[in-house]
Amino acid sequence: MASAEPDTIPILLVTANVGSVFEDPSKLLHLWLREFLDHVAQRRPAFIALHLQEVGGKTYEKSMEYVQEFIKKLCESDELRDYNRIRVYLDEDYNSAEHFTALGNLYFVQNTVDDVLMWNFLTHEWDPVEGKSIHTGSIETVASKEKAKFPQQFFPECKWSRKGFLRTRWFLNGTVFDLVNIHLFHDASNLAACEEYPSVYCKSRRRALVHTLERFHKDTANRPVPYFVFGDFNFRCDTEGVIKKLTEDLTVHRVQNAKHDSTKVQYRDADGANVLTVGKKEFFHNDQSTFKESWLRQFDRELDSLRSILYEYPITFPPSYPYEEDPLQPCSYMATRCPAWCDRILVSPAARKLISEGSTGDSYGIIGADVCMGDHKPVYLSTRIKTSQAVTGVDPGPRGSASEITVQELQDRLQEYTDLNMRIYDQQQSEAASLKVQSRYVTVTPVVAPDGTSASEERTEPPVENENDTSHYGDASGSRCALIFRETTV
């Protein structure tokens, strides 16, 4: 006789970087709230987890009243009136550079959920969840959460950072899991990001993320349980690869601004029109719609090295960042960064087993596709989780189908990917060494023919030996300006 299918609970997980919303709250706050609450009303989940980053924006001390208004309107909204258990954690202690992360975790539990407990990270026991509790200001001593700011050496390029994570643990109708809000470091310079892949920023993010996951798996005091980690990972596309794809038939020109000591690289078409400009904080393309086409997904590679330990639902939505902060341009990207899927919802191997397979309501996407939500579009996962998955009612680390992989298995899976990539790299280097490469410079100079029309004369320069430069930058001007091209044969 087949065993009965377990009951399930519909849940809604949302991550949103709201920094720009609090930079211009008079225009954006009500739009953001309305769109989020409409989404909740449409899906009616029994449990909502809302993870926020950059709460309060860049100047928290000036935005505190708006943060309080934001929380009040959410908790008192008609859409959430059936959610009789609320937990809010806002890290607002902006005067503490050692601890401040600007993270916010908000949880809403509907009255249809019978058994709700939260883990106490100090006593290592379960606490009942009743009514509404809002923790703001300094939350260092709040025992129902674990919070940490990343060590500065993870992001050496940044003088000061608010990046870190904020974790809570839940028991819902017999099923145990962690919910982790995370914020990783951004790309400080487009020019540095496109020098190689993985970029220096990509490596720093991976280091911090792996450090965090290992911390959970090594946690003997609280014991590892299935977890969902969602936040602003700041994952970026392979900028070097994107630029190569966008500029296949274009010429490159380096523009130096001596006054501001800055450099830009422009890519122009055959008519001299500028198609793409890349600067430290500029990424302008003359056709923004191209970033919403499917070709860009092949360059979303930052999660590849972690897919054996973190699962993600297939992405079918456009990049979540960086959108214009103008309510009149809700679908347009800013010309500052290459659009990317920075905001993600990732699932551990054991947490994936908690998800009810084949649920017709599963959906992974963005909120406010046609509404200005700030520079980040919130990303959501709507699914159902199985209940009664813990072997013992309050055991934080039940053995069985819901148990998390060991730290050794986690490290082994990561090492397998590293070993594979090293073999591929070694093979590519070996193949490249066996090729004979010859280069020469070709100078093309305009000349005037007897009939007055323009012509060109080609002059071959001596072969180049031990030459590392692969392109020539500069602007051509004048009636007899010579253009120098490098011709390489293999």
Describe this structure in words.
The protein is of the alpha+beta class. Strands 7-3-4-2-1-18-17 form a 7-stranded mixed β-sheet, with no helix packed on it. Strands 5, 6, 8, 9, 10, 11 and 16 form a 7-stranded mixed β-sheet that branches. A 4-stranded antiparallel β-sheet has the order 12-13-14-15, with no helix packed on it. The chain is globular and about 70 Å long. The C terminus is likely disordered.
Q: Which term fits the overall shape?
A: globular
Sheet bearing the most strands, described?
A: 7 strands, mixed
Approximately what portion of the residues adopt beta-strand conformation? 25-35%
Structural class call reads: alpha+beta
Family: Belongs to the inositol 1,4,5-trisphosphate 5-phosphatase type I family.
Domain Inositol polyphosphate-related phosphatase: 7-392
Region (Disordered): 448-478
Protein name: inositol-polyphosphate 5-phosphatase
Gist?
This protein has 490 residues and is α+β, with helices and mostly antiparallel strands. The chain has helices at 19-23, 25-43, 60-75, 190-193, 200-217, 239-246, 349-354, 407-433; strands at residues 8-17, 47-53, 85-90, 104-109, 116-120, 125-128, 132-135, 146-149, 164-172, 175-183, 227-232, 251-257, 262-268, 274-279, 282-285, 343-347, 363-366, 379-386, 438-448, 454-463, 483-489.
Write the layout of secondary structure elements.
Elements: E1 8-17, H1 19-23, H2 25-43, E2 47-53, H3 60-75, E3 85-90, E4 104-109, E5 116-120, E6 125-128, E7 132-135, E8 146-149, E9 164-172, E10 175-183, H4 190-193, H5 200-217, E11 227-232, H6 239-246, E12 251-257, E13 262-268, E14 274-279, E15 282-285, E16 343-347, H7 349-354, E17 363-366, E18 379-386, H8 407-433, E19 438-448, E20 454-463, E21 483-489
Parallel strand pairs: 1-2, 3-7, 10-11
Antiparallel strand pairs: 1-18, 2-4, 3-4, 5-6, 5-9, 8-9, 9-10, 11-16, 12-13, 13-14, 14-15, 17-18, 19-20, 19-21
Region (Disordered): 448-478
Family: Belongs to the inositol 1,4,5-trisphosphate 5-phosphatase type I family.
Organism: Anopheles atroparvus
